[in-house]
Amino acid sequence: MPSFPTTPDDPRLDGWYHTIELGNGLVSKGVYDHRPVAGCYGLPESLAGLRVLDVGTADGFFAFEMERRGANKVVAMDLATVGDCDWLPRMRPKIAWAGHDASWPRRFRMAHAMRGSNVEYHFGSVYELSPYMFGTFDLVFCGSLLLHLQNPLKALTSIRSVTRSMAIIETTVDAEMEKRNPDAPVLSFGSPGKEDTPGRDNVYWVYTTAALRRMLEYADFAVTEAQPLFELSQYGPTGSAVVAHTATPLGSPNAG
Prior knowledge:
- This protein is of the alpha/beta class.
- The protein has a single domain, classed as Vaccinia Virus protein VP39 (Rossmann fold), CATH 3.40.50.150.
- Helices cover 20% and strands 25% of the residues.
- It contains six helices and 14 strands.
- The strands form four sheets. Strands 5, 6, 7, 8, 9, 12, 13 and 14 form an eight-stranded mixed β-sheet that branches. A two-stranded parallel ribbon has the order 1-4.
- β8, α4 and β9 form a beta-alpha-beta unit.
- It is globular.
């Protein structure tokens, strides 16, 4: 078998988290295809000259997308294995397999090589982020991560510490809760009725957009702009992205 897939039926294209165009007509078969919704996150069309960070990059779709939009430098980071996720203590004895599951970095590296990418890839936890780790960034992107974290506010303050101008944070929202409480900073905890054991799915929080914006304010972002809700796939879930600025919005006449 060649070092990389060369035909669409290659089994190494199966089971990805992200759908990613790999070149030569090959596309990974991801659980989520973000290509139709990439414009829903508030990403500037051009990132020329900017230094950007993709937190929780998984297979790398958004890191490669930001590279495609012309970012001067893209740094992508994620955990080394599924076992490194923010699991409850009760779950760790039950997920021994996850300590050896390095599918994210393996798929990222394959996509990186096949695309001829220059994205810089590192292992690390969002909780550990600081200017001493990778420096600071004009734009920090974080998608579909907060729902999996036991301490999302700590994660956002860590993201704020490396954000010079702008962060884009996206997470799952409860569409019905959003309709009932459009202006209320409400969070729903856990996945009742969906798990046979609390914590099995590593999902802790479902937000309203107002809750995400309030949390970003507590993390010391000065201005937040909610984007319209969108469906991550035909089966859901509903995503909400917020563009957060440290002070003057990036690209405005007064931006430094």
